[in-house]
Amino acid sequence: MARPEPAADNPGAGRGIGEVLQLLQDEFADVTISKIRFLEAEGLVTPSRTASGYRKFSPADVERLRYVLTVQRDQYLPLKVIKQHLGAIDRGLQPAAAGPPVAPSSLPQTPGQPVADDFDAAGTELRLTRDELRAAAGVPAELLAELESHGLVVAGGNHYSGDAIVIAKVAAELAAYGLEPRHLRAFRTAADREVGLIEQVTGPRRTEQTAELAALTVRLHTALVRSRLPHPSE
Q1: Are 93 and 132 in contact (CB under 8 A)?
Q2: CA–CA separation, 108 vs 218, rounded Å?
Q3: By CB neighbour count within 10 A (0-12 exposed, 13-18 middle, 19+ buried), where does 129 fall?
């Protein structure tokens, strides 16, 4: 077995490789320091380094190693696939037990869920590829292309946020009532105006106050629409 690194300069900054080995050995009998170093060399974990050059593993690094060792042992996945899964995790996805990564189950999945809850649970930290967005929302490529052409779904760089899932799913449900993406541009315009109003109060940077104000405007919008619809008894 390779000799563990000596104690690092700042013990409070993380665990040394020997400590990590002790944490993992009870669950993974065949893990060694050499294997941990190999997984680091392959880019599956990137511990920080002290001024003296010693590895320091954060709790997230340890969990990352535990994930790698688990899927290697239980699913016999090659490192290339594991690396893809880790990339998906880094973008906020949850890799399925077998198959492509999927969006977290905490995202709104059922029709009729309150719109204000959608805002809080939409998973804006997700970074989805186009195929991942389509799979998570369950929409055809044609509908997604229309939503993009009308500015309803917008990619940030080459990825989409969790909000795009909600927009695509709701648009698909509205399509069942004959409302096409071109009919929904008024909602985009209204949203742009609401964002402008919020930024007058909070500024352009997103803060906790921004989220609170946005949720309030969504609640107000929902109530205003509901108040203008005929009552069932009328």
Answers
A1: yes
A2: 16
A3: middle
Domains of the chain: 11-90 (1.10.1660.10), 115-228 (1.10.1660)
pTM over 0.70: no
Q: Which helix (H) or strand (E) holds 102?
A: strand 101-102
pLDDT tens, position by position, 84-133: 888 888 877 766 544 444 444 434 343 333 333 344 434 446 778 888 88
Rounded mean pLDDT, 199-224: 85
Asked if residue 218 has pLDDT above 80, the reply is yes
DSSP-derived letter for residue 182 is G
Distances in Å between the Cα of 169 and the Cα atoms of 19, 41, 107 are: 46, 41, 11
Rounded Cα gap, residues 218 and 131, in angstroms:
29
> Which string of b and e fits 155-172 if b means at least 16 CB within 10 Å?
eeeebbbbbbbbbbbbbb
For residues 2 and 38, what is the distance between their CA atoms, to the nearest angstrom? 12
Rounding to the nearest 10 degrees, give the CA dihedral for residues 53, 90, 64, 71: -140
